[in-house]
Amino acid sequence: MYAEIARNRRNSWLLVVVVSAVLLLLGWALGEYWGNSWFGVGLAVAVAVVTSLVSFFGGGSIILTMSRAKKIEKKDAPQLFNVVEELSIAAGLPMPAVYLIDDTAPNAFATGRDPEHAAVAITSGLLEKLTRDELQGVMAHELSHVRNRDILFSMMVGIMVGSIVLLSDFFMRSFLWGGGRRRKSGGKDGGNAIFAVVAILLAIVAPIFAKLLQLAVSRQREYLADASAVQLTRYPAGLAGALRKISGDREVLEAANRATQHLYIVNPIKPFEKRAKSLFSTHPPIEERIERIMSM
User: Fold this and answer.
1) Is 116 a residue of the active site?
2) Which of 54, 77, 207, 247 makes a 20 to 30 Å CA pair with 161?
3) 32, 134, 142, 222: which one is catalytic?
4) Starting from the edge strand earliest in sequence, which strands make up the sheet with 119-123, in order?
């Protein structure tokens, strides 16, 4: 288990390095097209730094606000707080802030930049529909994301992928509207055309490549969080039962969207779940997760 957690962290850092390299390469290519490669690299770094600072210090709050989550106290949900307190002690983590989303669809997620600033959010539907053992399995899964530092890496990679998309979108709009400054390499139209093609290809391919890398690592994190949760609770049937109920529920989680879907324990965007083996899926197939959990 500890080897898996260490490998998860190595893969996460590797992902950060690769996505950063893609971002810089994209900035360089766009800069070449605009006439100054350093301007493109500087713009890419500036976009990444600004969005990183905003997200690092305010990302958790933004996600909770987007999800319509309200902070609650122990008197509002005593059983939930007891479960989270027990698991936090078992995992050696500080007690996270607890948020409730007023929605009948069962689901939950964790966010924050580190264990000291972590928060777990669950829907009212989850509280109503799960047994205590199942609730414990879900909370153990979310606290495992906190302990494994998945919440930080998910945020960092999400920021950089978002920066790549933002930069690509900015370039494509300037290209289509004819506002981009053309490269002046000796006044040769051939050079301009080559860099234009390279920049356009990178603007199209880079966001897709970065997103695929992000999703591949995200799916592995879900498997690891499931295994870590079972290690915490010593009761695989609890988490397995929760996954069956959440994935089989027909309610639609109104507060979820494509920007936050990867955070939830089960993908709340139902049509995407049916294509769970797709490269573009944020989560591994539920059947495989349950099979792995019950084999422990």
Assistant:
1) no
2) 247
3) 142
4) 69-71, 97-101, 119-123, 108-111
